[in-house]
Amino acid sequence: MDERDDWSSFSWHCPNCGDLVTGYKNREGFIKVECGTCHSVMVRRLKTHRHNSIDIFTPIGIVEMMV
Ligand SMILES: [Zn+2]
Questions:
Q1: Which of 3, 15, 23, 38 is the most buried (most CB within 10 A)?
Q2: pLDDT of 16-35, one tens digit each?
Q3: Can you tell me the distance from the alpha carbon of 65 to that of 67, in angstroms, rounded to the nearest whole number?
Q4: Ligand 1 mean position to 19 CA, how many Å?
C-alpha cells in the first residue's frame, strides 16, 4: 500500500458561506476547490504539518465577501 498522502481528500467549511467543500491535494501540496454554493475559489497550501493557508477568491458580482 502506498503510504504517500498524495491525492488524499481534504474537507473544510467555505469561509465565505459556510458550506462544506472537498478538494484533493496535488503533487505540489496545493488544494484548489470551488465552492458549489457561492463559487468562491479557494487555494489551500499545506506548508508544514502545523501551518497551512487558504487563499480565497470571491467572484466579483456574485456575492460579497462575508468574512
Ligand atoms: Zn461558499
A1: 38
A2: 899 999 999 888 889 999 99
A3: 6
A4: 6
Residue 61 Cα distances to 1, 7, 20, 21, 45, angstroms: 46, 32, 22, 21, 26
C-alpha cell at 19: 458550506
Note the pTM of the prediction, 2 decimals. Answer: 0.71
Contact 29, 23 (CB under 8 A): no
CA of 8 to the centre of ligand 1 (A): 21
Q: How confident is the model at residue 7 (pLDDT cuts 50, 70, 90)?
A: low
Residue 3's region, left for phi above 0, alpha for psi from -120 to 50, else beta, is alpha
Ligand 1 centroid vs 58 CA: distance in angstroms? 9
